[in-house]
Amino acid sequence: MAAPARYLDPAVLARIGSLDLKAKIVVEGVLTGLHRSPRRGFSVEFAEYRQYLPGDALATIDWKVFARSDRHYVKKFEEDTNLECHLLLDVSGSMHYGSRGVTKGEYGCFLAASLAYLMHRQRDAVGLIAFDDEIVHRVPPSARAGHLRTLLLALERLPAGHRTNVAKPLGDLAKVLSKRGLVVVISDLLDDQARVIEGLRHFRQRGTDVIVFHLLDQQELQFTFADVARFRDSESATEVLADPSAVRGDYLRAVQGFVDTYRRELGGAGIDYHLLDTSKPLDLALMAYLNARGRR
Amino acid sequence: MFGLGFLAPAFLAGALAVGIPILLHLFRRRSDRVIDFPAAQMLPQAPVQQQERRRLRDLLLLALRIAALVLLACSFARPYVLRGADALKAPITVVAVDTSLSMSAPGTWREAMRLAVAAVDAAPVADLVGVVTFDDRGQTGVAPTANRAEARAFLAALTPGAGGTRYAAALGASVDALGASRGRIVVVTDLQQQGLAGGDAVSVPDGVDVSVAAVPPAAANVAVAAFSRDGQGATAVVQSYAPGPRVVTARLRVDGAEVRQTRTELAPFASADVRFAGPLPAAGVAEVVIDDADGLAGDNTRYLRLESERPRTFIVLTADPPESARTGLYVQRALEAADDPATRVVVMDGRRYNTVGPGDRPAAIFVLGTRTLDRAGRARLASYLRDGGRVFLTLGPDVDLPSLSDVLGMAVRLAPEPVVATGDEATIVAADSRHPVLRRLAGPASSLGRVSIEQYRRLLDESGWSVLARFAGGALALGERQVGRGTLLVFASDLDNRWNRFPVQPSFAPFLVETARYLTRDGVSTSAFVLPSVPPGVPPVPGAHLIAAVGDQAARTVVVNVNPAESDPAVTTAEAFTASVSRVDDTREAPAIEEARAQEAQQRLWQIGLLVMLAVLVVESLVGRVARAGRSAEPGVG
Predict the structure, then answer these.
(1) How many angstroms away from the CA of A252 is the closest CA of chain B?
(2) Across the 638 residues of chain B, what is the mean pLDDT of every consecutive 10-residue run?
């Protein structure tokens, strides 16, 4: 099964035009590798009757129908959702950075689309909230048949944001979201760490499960620049003149501390935290989601 | 360059590739490059502490990469260290000064010296300067030197002579003075037309610049063109090269004492016979002198030896009597074409030669056949050659090979059967085009290359022979060697129109006339000479000269006169002169190239260069690795 695995590579996905096709490829590629369905055990609703066939479980025979018609009919059920999921996607300026062709924003879109596809397939209600320093677009959660297309279309047409303020939209959302469900945050979290953590804790305090996908580019994680240059943060417009060979160690320690802080604080608050390198395949993220979903 | 030479200097162009690392270095050195980096807030605000160290390291890497490229290019260019004179090789300016008779006109010589000194002074600073003088012959006056004062001093002491003008001699001597060096030739001359009349091949290698510094010729001239005696007196021919009528007084002197005088009127550019009637002494030297203050002084006098000249005899020796086989006819006619009254050509077969008395010593013998020579005849011919005689031997069908060694008094190894020439093999190629016999035949107009040879004999051992010409197949065609005190010339085919068509070619008569002139060049049997031909021991100066007794030759007086053609002041143009100079591929450097190859093969610097380049690359790799290790020591955030 080399072909599906190959399509999980972000660089390959970037060359596929349709976002729904990308999502389908990612999800089917992941599910192909699983041995048991993650959907088993969820609530179901009636779908159809059909005649009993030898081998069908006796428990599935509808005895009321048998009493009325004297025929054995098997009652088929369809899975139903009991989960409302919100995908919170960061579209701020820092998400437009990508050193290997795929930006963090594009990677986040792939990930959001794949999660939406997967959730929709599981009959979970899924919604989308895009934000930078405020909410720029919102698609309410739904499990309707055409909702996935609406959501993917919204992902494809997301406007480019500016400054990041993760804490503020999180706080706003925590107040708005009434129903307990699942919140998936997709962001580079390049913001005030304390406020971000505080915002995420609000969800947990309201009983909402939170999964954080922390997207960082490979250069942000490894910092392999060679030459002296001015490094500019496009959001704050601040520039730092640095010799990479001289500052690399300090920088990597700072990033490690940054990540460790999120991992420690969010883990302590019962929030799933996953650091994703945007040069790595998406299956890691999907597996993380499925594990979290399986615990519910 | 820096004492280094290169066998393949074109590869040095590869060194231009050093521009690539330099450009890359300059491009990467830009420190104002701005990189968008969202996590910039996490970069420490530390100063760029290692910038200088890194810059030095980059410069070291750049230097190493440039050195590697330069070493690679130099190694492919096959370098070698110049040794000795090669290291001092510099361009040369050769000033060739015309010292012929025509330069002695009033005012001409002074202007010539001014131009010559100016040419020395105007030579580029880096050039060596040499001085060549020429008339009929060219010779180096000052070998190329950086001491220009020496050249000026030589010019200050220089005076015009009485010789003719020959530009081929000037350029030949100048090219010799240049050697294998680059340079230019400045010819200081009056551009006398006579200098180009010889039909000599004037060839200068490509890349040698030839320019002319022209001086004004004589405006007018009157010369004694000829002087001869007869039974009733003597007659002089006086030639005017003046644009107006002239009246000249001609004086006849005998042994220095004036005996007669007469006045003659001359029309413009016309000649007149001046008759001196009355008996003259049977012996002594007569001279005719005219007064011509405006023209050349050297041609105002002509000398005549009053003793009757014993004619010189050329024997054409054939195998069969000329009356029956008509052999020797072509050679006889060619020798008589010189139209020299003092020359007699006798054709005789071997049987008759056996009876020729010892008193009839010929000036030269042209041997076309030896088949009928008996033992006495062979011994006589060998004795004649050994005692200073001149023999021109053809190896045609009438030569008896088994007895040839007896004829010549020396061993000659020949292939027993003649070679039948085919295709390109059948032409003659001059090997020494400056030899007097071939000098006038090497030009394109009378090229020996047009002679088609059908058969010839192959000389198996060429040791001791000077090769003057070869057949295109490589065998000797015309060779010369000394036998005792005599001179032997050998032509390896025949001259009776049987093995080739040479006798019916236009170059045949000039060839034989020049050969006869060369063989009798020391003038054993003549007493009157025209410059530049003078016998050994006689200076090339017009007048009467006494030759001391040598061996069985008694002391005698000879007279030397100027070449009457030199009296004509007609000139050509600098453009015509330049156009007459043919260019040839520069082969002067061939020996130098061979020497350079030998040096390069001995030194093998290219191997050292490649080894050093590899070492430089190893160092560059180590330095680069250290630099990269400094950048990637931390594993990154996982």
Answers:
(1) 6
(2) 73 83 73 78 70 73 89 88 60 91 88 93 87 91 90 92 87 84 88 75 78 88 86 85 90 89 88 86 88 87 82 87 81 82 84 71 90 89 88 92 89 88 76 78 62 87 87 88 89 90 86 87 66 81 84 77 87 84 68 75 87 91 75 56
ipTM for this model: 0.73
Amino acid identity, residue A110?
F
Q: Tell me the residues of B at the A interface, defined by beta carbons under 8 Å apart.
A: 28, 31-46, 48-51, 54, 627, 630-638
CB-nearest partner of B634 from A190, A242, A249: A249
The 10s digit of each residue's pLDDT in A56-83 is: 778 778 888 888 888 888 876 544 445 7
The β-bridge relationship of strands A125-131 and B138-145 is: unpaired
A56 and A202 co-located in one domain: no
Domain boundary among A60, A79, A98: A79
B627/chain A closest Cα distance in angstroms: 9
Cβ-defined contact of A239 to B36 (cutoff 8 Å)? no
Domain of A275, CATH number, reads 3.40.50.410
Distance CA A218, CA A215 (A): 10
Number of residues assigned to chain A: 296
B42/A228 CB distance under 8 A: no
Number of residues assigned to chain B: 638
- Judge whether residue A217 has pLDDT over 80: yes
Nearest to B38 among A188, A225, A251 (CB): A188
Task: Collect all residues of chain B within an 8 Å Cβ-Cβ radius of residue A248.
Answer: 631, 633-634
d(CA B192, CA B166): 9
User: What does the pLDDT look like over A162-181, one tens digit per residue?
Assistant: 676 777 778 777 777 766 68
Domain that holds residue A68: 4-79
In this structure, what is the dihedral angle of CA atoms A240, A243, A249, A251, given to the nearest 10 degrees?
20
Contact between A254 and B42 using a beta-carbon 8 Å cutoff:
yes
Indicate yes or no: CB of B54 within 8 angstroms of CB of A245.
Answer: yes
Rounded-to-integer distance, Cα B173 and Cα B131, Å? 10
Residues of A in contact with B638 (CB under 8 A): 221
Residue of B33, B41, B628, B623 whose CA lies nearest to A224: B628
The answer to whether the CB of B229 falls within 8 A of the CB of B308 is no
**Residues A60, A202 share a domain:** no
Residues in CB range of B58: below 8 A, 6 or more apart: B25, B28, B29
Helix, strand or coil, per DSSP, at residue B514: helix
Domain count, chain A: 2
Contact across the interface for A220 and B627, Cβ inside 8 Å: no
**Cα–Cα distance list, B34 to A12, B31, B177, B417 (Å):** 29, 8, 67, 92
Decide: residue B81, CB within 10 A, 0-12 exposed, 13-18 middle, 19+ buried.
Answer: middle
**C-alpha distance from A122 to closest chain B C-alpha (Å):** 32
Domain boundary among A59, A79, A99: A79
Asked if the Cβ–Cβ distance from A97 to B38 is below 8 Å, we say yes
CB A171 within 8 A of CB A134: no
